Amino acid sequence: MKMEIREVGVELEMKEEDRVKVKMENKEEDGWLRVVVEIFLIADLTTLRKCFRGRKVVRTEQSKLREKFLSIYGENCQNLDRNAFGPDSDFLRQFLYFFNAENIDDFLILVQICRLLQQFVQESGDVVQLFAAEDYLSRCALVNYRVKQFVYTCIRAVHHNRYYLKDQLLLTLKESNTSAIPLLEVLVLLIDPKLPWSCKIVSSLSKNSAFSLLREIILTGKKCFRGRKVVRTEQSKLREKFLSIYGENCQNLDRNAFGPDSDFLRQFLYFFNAENIDDFLILVQICRLLQQFVQESGDVVQLFAAEDYLSRCALVNYRVKQFVYTCIRAVHHNRYYLKDQLLLTLKESNTSAIPLLEVLVLLIDPKLPWSCKIVSSLSKNSAFSLLREIILTGKDNAENCIYSEKGSSLERVLTVVTCHIGQKPCICSPTDPVYSFSSQILSIPFLWHVFPNLKQVFAKQGLGQHYVHQMATWLPNLMNSLPNDISDELPTYACLLGNILETGGIALSRPDCSFDMAVDLASVTTFLLESYPSPTRSDGRENSKIADDEMTGEDEVMEVVLDGKLNQQISNAIDTRFLLQLTTILFRDFSSANGSDREPEDKEVAAVGAVCGFLHVIFNTLPLEKIMTVLAYRTELVPILWNFMKRCHENKKWSSLSERLSYLSGDAPGWLLPLSVFCPVYKHMLMIVDNEEYYEQEKPLSLKDIKSLITLLRQALWQLLWVNHTTSANSVKSGPVSTAVKKQFEAIQQRVSIVVSELLSQLQDWNNRRQFTSPSDFHADGVNDYFISQAVIENTRANEILKQAPFLIPFTSRAKIFTSQLAAARQRQGSQAVFTRNRFKIRRNHILEDAYNQMSQLSEDDLRGLIRVAFVNEFGVEEAGIDGGGIFKDFMENITRAAFDVQYGLFKETADHLLYPNPGSGMIHEQHLQFFHFLGTLLAKAMFEGILVDLPFATFFLSKLKQKHNYLNDLPSLDPELYRHLIFLKHYEGDISELELYFVIVNNEYGEQTEEELLPGGKNIRVTNENVITFIHLVANHRLNFQIRQQSSHFLRGFQQLIQKDWIDMFNEHELQLLISGSLDSLDVDDLRQHTNYAGGYHSEHYVIEMFWEVLKGFSLENKKNFLKFVTGCSRGPLLGFRYLEPLFCIQRAGGNASEEALDRLPTSATCMNLLKLPPYKSKEQLETKLLYAINADAGFDLS
């Protein structure tokens, strides 16, 4: 037989012959381990030594587990969620293993766990599901065991601390802010007879002597209750004695009563009861008399200490502390009765509240020797939480109060407390964050609106630096220190944020504002802003792909709508001045022109981290336009951030900035946060930078730096989108992180990937305007055949990259994907409509009208299907030839040439002969918008069929096909002269208002001039140096977007009938032109020769073939295009080369023999087969003459 003793996981085995029974207890009196050994036969000392060693091992393990537990769940269990109580979690097992009732920290953790448990049950209403998930029956053994252990632990904890808790044991649920009530209420919750484990719990409690523990708890509470009754009797007797001595109105009181040898204050403070109105009125009278005595003598210290403060300071300090706290308690308890008096001034001293508040001002004066002692005592005794409730009660009446320069008495109380803590030297003991002035008072909604004088003192005396630094030291647990929310619209953190920001701007403007103050301010506000709800997208933000992920499932939350005034307070505080001052202070020691190649020092890292953390969160919470303009044009943010990132990149050592956001860890890439700020600001800057600044002056970054920037952006984007996509969760802080935190980290990754994509796309546009780096610099190194094969499959990661960052993939690869998409679409259409064909007769001299009348009637499905054309010549005779595709190609080339001809009036040309919609088209064609819809369809049909057409469009119009907005730097392609005028205005150093310009623009179409306002009332708004940038933007927007918006919109609708938006979104405007027209370079004869077949006796080395290629190579570009049209029906070759010509070009021998009659024939073609029928000419000259005649004969398809 073996006997077993279990002590917190340690098992001792004792042999039967030892027959030793060991009982171990912790002696409460002296804390030593008391071992009581009952020896039945012989005590085995070896067994005892093993037991001691086992307990030592267990304590070590408990200590390690406690540290691990706190690192995971937080010191206040702030990381705890409802899943922690489930059967699959180790939370309860770990806690119950290391819990020690003697350890006050463990006890407080248990109290917090009980509070959270009550909260989770209240939210779900099902305690069984909380502990057992969805399957109690199969997990009942484990669940019952854990609940039994937890219940018994709560009882043991209350029992061990019963003397400390004696005043709380008989309180009710209303006093849940105490320590005992949460534990006792959890017992009520878990022993409910309706629960399936109820009998098991009660039985276990009985076996473990829990009822004896409960008995001792009850007796302790009962003793306390009896003690209170005795105290009340004594207080009543003392009150009677007090009144008999000093009078009911203290009329017998003199100044000596406050001295150290008098029992007056001791007696009064002993019997005073804030609930007793008579006691309260006595206190008011005492305060009046105290003020009178001080006013007479002018020395409050002498009043309380007589002539010897130093020797009596302990007693004096104690009495003053008690008296001050009593005054605060009295006002707090009667705050609703006094609510109309709380914000009155000293002039209304005949009220009840003012004497008490003025005595507080008198006794907390920072000049007094006990000042630090008083303020420390107030903090420890939760006095600031009482003051908070007093202020909240009185502030609703603030509008009815008359403003005074000295402020209300309550404001004066806060001022002396504030001034004391901020003054040096200060010997106040460290403050518990929960009960601190910062948490309790600074989080009151609109504090500065109620107490404007306090705001000035707080800001101008530099006190904000003390409190902001104090809160910075509490990060990341600041949220746990804040009081409960007043309402959903006024959450405490947001009220604190608004108050800090409102005075933060004043603090930053002080000449003595330090670097550390700016860092602390940025850190605290960043932390609070992380919880700030994002605004709706109707706030005037830039057109961006960035959008907040919708939360679904159990993380779905109701939309948070903050109070309008609170939103306004926060947004108004982060104004131009605030941003300029913050960035100036943080960056004043760092130059954008720093030529050092060394990695950044700690101070620079702190500055960049503080700025980027702050700006990152406000980018996602506040309207962007105002913020971006300030950061882009009035700070050195872009060059300084680039200088920092460049040195980190070159040294291949990125500093961790993870502490700047609560949901990042040290594993997060060091470039993640800087890029989240740099990219949108630089992108905004590039919208107004002109060509001279960018290319010639190289502002704000040199072209060399931009090349390095492209490399950095490309590598970072590839890392985010491809390399790290599957391992992104590793960068989230360790431990059981909530889904919301994971979503936040994923959101910043997505946000950064989008802003990097947008900036790279913009830099590619600048490179297309004037090349300063190789186009291949935008291509990712990791793009291979496997990636391309995945990119064509919907919903793959490669496909998502293709949509978001197509420039990472070479153009040829994207063009192949595009052609495969078109081929698949044509194949789908062909399989659905095998027998449907539309055959049109088109008169060559009325090609546009006939095509419009017939094709406009077709449905989208018909447009995607085969269309066959028969041409009718000028004599009304149908031309020879059967349309196998070649005639349709010829038709498409001719109709596009006619429809887009500027003579027709629908399109105009730029100075570079590039096409764009005619703003005055409505003056020429009544149905001009219908025609634009048709032309969009026509262009889309050409692209859908893979037919290249000679239509050189202006870049700003091609942007419309991608539904992009055009900006100032697109204007030179439309109106170079207007662009020069606007740039002149932008750089004009004089007074622009003297130029007599207004916010109007003159339209001049076909000799008819009209004046149009750029803004409502624009004809009365003069252009000045302050609004000239807005004027320039509006003029460019009018010319590039507004004037042609209707024409572009109808064209786009027609275009998108056949070409999906996502098909062309993977191309920039320059590449889109290549898809439409192919390369502008000369026809590649060598490529055509390499992909040519031969028939009828010809082969690649035949002398006629050799002559043919020599002749073709010598043709002019125009003749080469005519030749290509002669043999294929289209004057332009396939986009990706002649290997993609279907079918391949073929040269067939014509005439059979070399007779004179055969050699006199002209070459003929079959365009549907891409076939050239070439007679065997004897000489090179004859071949050239005949071929030139044939391709330039303009004989329709009569030579086919």
From TrEMBL:
The record ties this protein, via Pfam families, to: HECT
* Reaction(s) the record says it catalyses: S-ubiquitinyl-[E2 ubiquitin-conjugating enzyme]-L-cysteine + [acceptor protein]-L-lysine = [E2 ubiquitin-conjugating enzyme]-L-cysteine + N(6)-ubiquitinyl-[acceptor protein]-L-lysine
Please name the GO terms of the biological process aspect recorded for this protein, alphabetically.
protein polyubiquitination; ubiquitin-dependent protein catabolic process
Q: Where is the active site?
A: 1168
Q: Which InterPro entries match?
A: E3A/B/C-like, HECT_dom, Hect_E3_ubiquitin_ligase
Superkingdom of the organism of origin: Eukaryota
- The reply to whether Transferase figures as a keyword in the UniProt entry is yes
Recite the UniProt keywords alphabetically.
Ligase, Transferase, Ubl conjugation pathway
**Gene Ontology MF term list:** ligase activity; ubiquitin protein ligase activity
- Give its E.C. classification number: 2.3.2.26
Instruction: Report if keyword Transmembrane is assigned.
Output: no
SMART domains per record: HECTc
Stored SUPFAM superfamilies: Hect, E3 ligase catalytic domain (SSF56204)
Which PROSITE patterns does the entry mention? HECT
All copies of domain HECT, residue ranges = 859-1200
Report the enzyme's class at the first EC level.
Answer: transferase
Role played: Probable E3 ubiquitin-protein ligase which mediates ubiquitination and subsequent proteasomal degradation of target proteins.
The record's family statement is: Belongs to the UPL family.
Q: What is this protein called?
A: HECT-type E3 ubiquitin transferase
